[in-house]
Amino acid sequence: MNLITESTTIPRLLRNVVNHVHSEDNTFLIHKVKDSWEEISYKEVLDKSDAVSCYLLEMGIQKGDRCALIIENSPDYIYYDQGLQQIGAVNVSIYPTLSENEVEYILIDSGARTILVGNPYLFRKILKIANNCPNLQRVIPVFDDYEKSLVNTNLNAGVLSFKKLIEEGNSDISNFKAKLNVIREEILPSDLSSLIYTSGTTGIPKGVMLTHSNFVQNVLCCLEQIPVIDENETFLSFLPLSHVFERTATYHVCITKGCKIAFSQSLELLAKNMGEVRPTVMSCVPRLLERIHDKAMKNGTSAGGTKAKIFLWAIEIGKKNRQVLESGKKPNFILSMQHSLAEKLVFSKIKEKTGGRLKFMLSGGAALPKNVGEFFGNLGIKILEGFGLTETSPVMSVTEYHRQVYGTVGRIIPGIEVGIQDVETKEIISVQTHNTFDENFECSEGEVIVRGHCVMKGYWNKPEETAQVIDSEGWFHTGDVGRFYKGNLQITDRIKNMLVNAYGKNIYPTPVENTYLKSPKIEQLFLIGDKREYITAIITPSKESLQETFGMKEEFFQRPEQFIDDAEIVNWIAQDLKRLSTELAKFERIKSFLVKRNPFTIEEGEITPTLKAKRKVIEKKYASQINDLYLQTVESN
Fold this sequence. Notes:
CATH topology of the domain at 10-187: Rossmann fold
Number of helices: 21
C-alpha cells in the first residue's frame, strides 16, 4: 500500500517505499563499477543518507542552510541529497559544465556552506574559487587521490573526502539518530527543498526556490496522468540531476513508486548502456531522439535495393497501423498481418538496440519535431512529451499514455490552471485545467501563463524579479508562446526569441529551425533576421556526415578558422535547405548562411546547459561575420 499525500516530503517518499512497497533489501540503484553493473539496496541508501545527515548535523548545518553539489549522476548524488533533505537543508545543484565565474556566483549568491565535487577536473575548478566564497566551509570530493591537487593551495574551507564523511557520520549515528528522526518529521511541505539556478539565455542566473510541496505534488500529478508506471520499472538516468526535469521525471518518480534507477556511464556510452540495462522507461531530450531517428533512417536505406525497400515499406505500414489505432479503431486482418511482418523484419531490430523493454520515453527540455515523434510512433515506441520550466517544478503538461497528439506537449496536469494571454492586449484568451479537457478544443496563440501548486516560491534574494514574473493574481508568466490544440497544449516558441523582420512579419525561430533540422546533414542551426529584410542562419554540419561524405580527418575540425568556406560543402548543405524550404512561408526561408566548423558549446557561453541558444551572445559574438553575410548577399543580387 502506497501512503503518499500532499503533506508528504521528499525524505518521506523513500521511506514510504521501504515501509509499503519493497523490502529494504531490494535493489534501488544500479551503477557500473569497472566492467560490471552493481546493485545498491534501499538499506544501503538509507544508511549512507543517515551518515551524511549526522555528519552535517555535527558540523552545525541547520534547517534552511544551503549545501551545493557539482557532480555527475551517481549513487553519491542520491546519498547526499537524501542526507540534506531529511534535515531540512537545501540542495543547490550546479551544472558541471558551468564556467568558474558562474559556479562562483552561485556559491556566493546561495551562501552554500558545503559542496560535493564529482571528479578531479571539477575539484580543481572549485579550488580556484573557493576562497572567494565566504560561506563555504567544506569541499567534499567523491574520488580518491585528491590530495595531490591540494599541493601549494591555502584553502579557507576544509577538505574531506566523501568516503571519510560517511565514516565520520556513521560514528555519530548514536549521538544524532533520535534527533534526526525528530527533524525529519518536522519538515513541512512548504519548506525549501532546492535552489536550482536557471541558466538563462540572457542575464544573471536566478535561484529558483522549490519546496517539498512543489516537487511532491508535481510528481503525484504526473503519475496520475501516466498511471502505467509501476514499481517494476527500471529507469536509465543520463540527463543531469542538476536539472529539474531529470530530478522529477526520474529520481522523484522512482522514490515515489519504488522503481529502480540505473545510471548511464556517459552520453557516449548511452547506446551501449541501454543494451546492457534494458530500461523500461527513460527521460530524454529531443536531440537524442532526432539522432536515433537519423541513424535508423540511414541504416535502413543506405544500402539501397531490397533492404531499403523493406525498411521503407515497414515504416509506411507502421504509419498506417498507428493512424488506425489513433482514430480509435482496430486494424483489419490484412494490416495486422502486414504489421506483424514489419515488426519481425524491421521494428524488433531497432527496439532491440534500446534493450527491447522500453514502455515509453519521456521527452522534455525542448520541442520535439512532429516528424520525429511520428517516426517513433510508427515503430511502436511511445514518446510522451512534457512541458514546463524550472519555475514550475517543472511539469505543467504531459502526454497521456493512451492519447497522443504529435506536435503538442500533452494535457494539463491535475490541480493547476494554464492560461493563454494575448501578448499585446494582455487579455486572457482561454484558461484550461485537467478537468476541462476537451479533445476538440482549440484557441488562438498567446503567452502561456500558469497558476497553482507547481509555481515556485520565488527567486532567491530577488523579490523584484519575482514580482516581474508572478503577477498580483498569482499567474506565473512563462515567456513561452503557445495555444491549445485538440485539448492539448502546443508550444510555439519563446517570446524573447521572436524575430520581427524589416517588413513587420513575426517569425518564431524554433519551428523554422526544426524544419531545417530534419536534414541529417545539419547538427545545429541558429536563425538570424530580426529587423532584417530576410532570414539567414549559422549552421553547424553533422561531423559524422562530413566525415562520411567528404572524408574529413580530425585535423579539419581542429583548424583555427571558425567558419568553413568550402564551396562544395556549402552547396551540399544548400541542397537540403532548398528542399526543406518548401515547407515554410517565403519570409521564413533561409536566403544565405554561414557554416560553422564546430558546434555551439556551453563552455563558450553560446548555449545553456539545456542546449538552448543564447541569442544575444551568439549575435554579438559573430556580429562581424553576420554583417558580412548580409553585405555579400546584397552584392550578389
